[in-house]
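Comment on both lines for my students:
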Amino acid sequence: MHRWTSLVCTLFLFAICVTGLPLLFSDEIDGWLTPHVYADVPAGTPPASLDRLVAQARASYPGEIVTSVFIDDDEPQAYVWMAPSWQAMQDEPASRHFLRFDARTGALLERSQSMQAQRWQFMNVMLSVHRDLFAGLPGELFLGVMGLLFVIAIVSGVVLYGPFMKNLKFGTVRADRAPRIRWLDLHNLLGIVTLAWAFVVGATGVMNELATPLFALWQRGDVSHMLAQYRDATPPAQNELTSVQAALDTAKRAVPGMTITGVTFPTRVNGSPWHYLLWAKGDTTLTSRLFSPVLVDARTGQLAHVLQMPWYLRALEVSRPLHFGDYGGMPLKVLWALLDLLTIVVLGSGLYLWFARRHAVAARIEALAAARESEEAAS
């Protein structure tokens, strides 16, 4: 079980570990490649109205629609995402692009290319390989299966470790033995040292690959039942929408003490056709990873619902920082990177041991066959 689950997933685990290294430092790499410069404004300057940012975006691309607004809580910036139409975005999600604004002055800082045009940028390539192998949902599910095999390989390796090491001290590497024995000892040592980390990252990786079907399950269940009362109502067109800033203010009053980081405009694609969908999060280490959706009527600006996320989506949200190691600053990122490198060594040594064992068995069979031929010739 340990041998074959490891062999089947090793190639894909190599790809995940190698691409995971730059992704750990994605914020730092993005800041180095495209440094962000902001206006020097007095402390306490209130943020610009989202209505102003949206109006500027629509004026820049009059034939397109606004799909969402992202409000960065780390840097003073806001992103207005646009697409040719909802149908175009559904058919080709990479048709989206954004305009980046200074969140305090409202100054336009950047116009992006479409996501399709950015697809082959370094960090986007790393993310696509790590997440779905450029294969969308089938790729995500496939890598989820590979992650599950990795978890099984870890558990079966623990079962094997006890009997194998019962006559050896912990950490023993028999340097005076053949290369295969030395690598076997090193493989076992690094495997047991990185055991807890590899298990957590492997299990949370499987959870992350299930994000799309889990959100779809929630939307088709709880969200669909809640929105049933609106089915006879005509969804508003973009020129009929109420103030997005007013919707933001309404959501803030509904969830005091929480931070609103995103607004999805009315749509049947991952949202509600009749509401603004706003995402609120807490301000502690744990709650900053837990989001609460708030629905605001897109015509009247009245609060409609504060949704409760189901347990499986809460588990998914908690798993993400454990997987990416992005909740403890640079020291934790460096630790995650070192453990990632050790895991690459474990994978490589396991592959070497398999090939070396096959070679040793083949050589033994060949020697036995030669000896038998010699005996038969002598007789």
Summary: The chain has a mean pLDDT of 89. Residues 2-24+128-200+328-378 form one domain. DSSP finds twelve helices and eight strands in the chain.
